[in-house]
């Protein structure tokens, strides 16, 4: 990690809430004074000619960019072990010195925050890449509604899923996925007409998230959190998100498909790593050796998966079907929340239905963020198949497919089935654009303190 000690010359003269704060930046977010490598040999020495909008905004607000953080190569991974610079090691207490997973792909950012190296860090979340590391490292990880924050200057993995893990209010006209000022205004106006009771939130518990792979410690933390919230006067309601079981399959068709297209430009001709074998190949192969040497095994695997999903023989059966599943997942969330999805409402419809006047039943959804506490790195490396790692995203992918905001908040449960006392990430999700309620729920979770484990069922 390269440190930048001086304050940016672009900082605003007026003080802001982050003036002088130390911020770390994930290494797939472009900076002009530090390399942007995406943890890949393909871009090992690459320095961007322009800065990402999110970095520019931080500097204007007076933040100090301390350096870039390690990650899974091009954001593809769940444990931050697929990096040309070596694996990220998660934080561990002195009594538990064994190296643990930091989660991925924003593991370096999560560790930097957890270890007190910075006040905050930027990450990117495509299918859970901010929330999963936050859960493993015991910090807060926030994914805003899709399009709320500009991703101009973020090296793309899957354009329709990528989000930067901080909240933003300003539109960037150079980023086609950033919500327009008119849409943001409509969201603010309609959401301001809605009401909810902070003392008695309607909290949904999705039955489909109670998968068999949940470890006893995580299931106990989920139950204890729900019971504690109930005792504080909040309403707990079982809900169904019926297409959740198909979310993971849909994600691992759509994300690699978009990645295969986005990474096609890394051929060693226009920019990036160039293999010497390209110049001396007797078969006159132009860039195959470059792409083999420049990309790690996991990135190559996902490029191949995506290329096949987009091929003429497979597109209808895989890519198109995955898009249909994505639409069904979005509909599940819309049906669950009391708040309507204003992004889908007609522009001419000025009437705001009452918050409890729709078919939905809950203000927020509460579920675990990960299947377990941070696993040992040795166990992660011993996994026999990449599918063992892909399943880690099963609880975070649905919110990404739906584009709804989500935040992972660490909870601590005393006694019970987590004798090591490791933090467990609880995930709160709300309707698209409803970050106000999301943060109220997150504050409530943070205020629970250490809870006593409820008796197992």
From TrEMBL:
Catalyses which reaction(s): L-glutamyl-tRNA(Gln) + L-glutamine + ATP + H2O = L-glutaminyl-tRNA(Gln) + L-glutamate + ADP + phosphate + H(+)
Region Disordered, residue ranges: 88-107
Pfam families tied to this protein: Amidase (PF01425)
GO biological process, one term: glutaminyl-tRNAGln biosynthesis via transamidation
PROSITE patterns the record matches: AMIDASES
Sample GO molecular function, one term: ATP binding
Location in or out of the cell: Mitochondrion
Chief place of localization: mitochondrion
Top enzyme class: ligase
UniProt keyword terms in alphabetical order: ATP-binding, Ligase, Mitochondrion, Nucleotide-binding, Protein biosynthesis
E.C. no: 6.3.5.7
Similarity comment text for this entry: Belongs to the amidase family. GatA subfamily.
Function: Allows the formation of correctly charged Gln-tRNA(Gln) through the transamidation of misacylated Glu-tRNA(Gln) in the mitochondria. The reaction takes place in the presence of glutamine and ATP through an activated gamma-phospho-Glu-tRNA(Gln).
Assembly information from the UniProt record: Subunit of the heterotrimeric GatCAB amidotransferase (AdT) complex, composed of A, B and C subunits.
Protein name from the UniProt record: Glutamyl-tRNA(Gln) amidotransferase subunit A, mitochondrial
Protein species of origin: Morchella conica CCBAS932
